[in-house]
Each structure stands twice: as structure tokens, then as C-alpha cells.
Amino acid sequence: MKVDFHCHTTASDGSLNPSELIDLAVQYEVETLAITDHDTTSGYSQALEYATKKGIRLIPGVEASCDWQGHTIHIVGLDFDPDNEELQKGLELIRALRQKRADAMIDKLAARPNFQKLDLADLLEQQIGEGVVGRGHFAQLLIEQNYVKNSQQAFDKYLKKGRVGYVKSEWPDLADVVNWIKQANGIAVIAHPGIYKFTSRKLNRLIEDFITAGGQGIEVVNHPRPSSDMMGMAERAKRYDLLASIGSDFHRPEHSWRGLGWLAPLPEHCTPVWEHFKKPLFINGKP
Ligand code: MN
Ligand code: MN
Ligand code: MN
Questions:
Q1: Does residue 246 lie in a domain region?
Q2: 246 CA distance to ligand 2 middle (Å)
Q3: Ligand 2 centroid to residue 195 C-alpha, Å
Q4: Which ligand is nearest to the CA of 7?
Q5: How many CB atoms are located within 10 Å of the residue 42 CB?
Q6: Which ligand has the minimum distance to the alpha carbon of residue 249?
Q7: CA 21–ligand 2 middle distance (angstroms)
Q8: Do 174 and 110 share a structural domain?
Q9: Residue 238 lies in a domain
Q10: What gap in Å lies between CA 201 and CA 66, rounded to an integer?
Q11: What pTM was computed for the model?
Q12: How many whole angstroms separate alpha carbon 44 and alpha carbon 269?
């Protein structure tokens, strides 16, 4: 049985709408899924009825941005009460900060001669649709307007730190975000821990602060093939007594390296995060 606890829809910066994502899950035989859109649970709510009809079990999910010692960290929340007011107010705050950042990015880019022929605000709005704005939308806009060939180039040339479109984000503290998820009776998980490119010591400090705040899980598997990185995260999960999650971070089918549910199995000695769901899943007969 395949599971995936990290993916995106058009409710944030994914390219498939919630129903299309469910169809893809059916096609790829992913039986249990958490839609973890950036700072919104609207993709989850939109997909719920259709998922049930299609026999897909949907776990409430979200990917929230926060700040830890000046770094942007993503925390995945799983199996929480989506109607919890404190969590929803927190997510609303992050969405407002995202909008503020996007406005500042537009101002900075629009001041540059090579962007003056474009109505950036209008193009961005089309790109976002119903979603929550993110830098991925800027990347798509730059690709479609032929400024760059792919997302990596968009970040390297325009969006990353030191480039013209970069605006420092202001996110709530790690401890606040973890607390909101806990308040909503959910499990907080450090998303894609390898992506931050921290030294081992620094990653351990993040984990320690995260645990102090009440965090319980870490993504151990993000890729289809086992790697030394994955084994390092599995080892940390064990050492720190963290629940292990698995998620592809799927955004769009064109990103062929990140298929929905296309994930290596959890290493044996890990405690799967789904064992702690309110209604546990059974995978190969084991919880
Ligand atoms: Mn994203
Ligand atoms: Mn992320
Ligand atoms: Mn993600």
C-alpha cells in the first residue's frame, strides 16, 4: 500500500486542482494521502468528498512556513482538527505575510527595466488563481514569459537571496507554528529536513528546539530511492524518539523526479507517524 503525506494542489502552488490530485492518487494506487498545501487547508476541504467517493483516505494536512533563528523552516501538520480556530487564525496570519512579501517582490521586480513591459501584478494574479501566493508562482510566471527555462533558473537568476526579486520573509516563530498544530490536536513534522542544507550540528539544534516546542515528527523519506541522507534522518528519528513521516512534496506532473507516492519504504527501525493517527492505518498488516 502506498501513502504520501506531503503534496500540493492549486490551493497553494501545485498545478492540479484537489479533484485532479485525487484522480492521480487513484491512478498511482496511493491509498492514503495528506494534501499539505502551503498555509491553507482549503485543498483538503475541497478534496474530502471526492476522495471518499474514490476510496482514498485523506488525512488533514498543511505545510506551514515559520522562522527558526533567521531561517525559513517548513513544518507539516498532520491529522489535526481542520476547524480549530487557533490554527486557522495562525494560517491566516502566514497568508497575510505571504501577500505582503509578494507585493514587495512585485515592486522590486517592476522597478527593473527588463520587466517594465509586463503587468506583473496582473500576471501573478492569473498565475495564483485560487491559491495561496508563493515564490513558485513567480517562478512559473518567469518561465511562461520566457525569462527563464525552469524553476531552478528562476530562483538562481531572480528569486534567491541576493537577486533582484528577493525579499526577506517574516514568518511566525517555529514554536508558535508547532503550538498551533498541537492546539488543533495534530502532529507537527519537520518537512524535507535535507533541504535546508544545515550542518549536522545545526540540524540537531533545530530538532532539539522543535521537540522543546512540542514537535513530534520528521520526514525521513522524501525520495523514491534510499540514500545516505535518508538513513541519517532515520537515525535521528530514532535518537530523538521522533515519529517518521514520508512525503514526496509533489507539486506538478512535469516535475518527473517527484511523483505522487513515489517513495522508498520507511527504514525498519522507524516508528511510522501513521501509528499515532487517531484512526491508525494498517500497512502490510502492521499499524
Ligand atoms: Mn511549494
Ligand atoms: Mn516545503
Ligand atoms: Mn511542500
A1: yes
A2: 13
A3: 8
A4: 3
A5: 20
A6: 3
A7: 18
A8: no
A9: yes
A10: 20
A11: 0.94
A12: 31
Cα 239 to middle of ligand 2, angstroms: 24
Are the beta carbons of 55 and 141 closer than 8 angstroms?
no
Cα(8) to centroid(ligand 1), Å: 7
**Minimum-distance ligand to the CA of 6?**
3
Each residue's pLDDT, cut to its tens digit, for the chain (287 residues) gives 799 999 999 999 999 999 999 999 999 999 999 999 999 999 999 999 999 999 999 999 999 999 999 999 999 999 999 999 999 999 999 999 999 999 999 999 999 999 988 999 999 999 999 899 999 999 999 999 999 999 999 999 999 999 999 999 899 999 999 999 999 999 999 999 999 999 999 999 999 999 999 999 999 999 999 999 999 999 999 999 999 999 999 999 988 888 999 999 999 999 999 999 998 776 655 55
**Orientation of helix 18-27 relative to helix 42-53, angle to 10°:** 50
CA of 111 to the centre of ligand 3 (A): 30
Report every protein residue that has its C-beta within 5 angstroms of ion ligand 2: 74, 191
The rounded Å distance from CA 202 to ligand 2 centre is 18
* Ligand 3 centroid distance, CA of 6 (Å): 6
- Count up the domains in the chain and report the number: 2
* Strand blocks (E) in the chain: 2-4, 30-34, 57-59, 61-68, 71-78, 187-190, 217-221, 243-246
Q: Looking at the structure, do residues 139 and 271 belong to the same domain, yes or no?
A: no
105, 160 Cβ separation under 8 angstroms = no
Same domain, 153 and 182: no
Domain extent at residue 114: 103-159
**Domain containing residue 71: CATH number:** 3.20.20.140
Q: How far is the CA of 49 from the centre of ligand 2 (A)?
A: 26
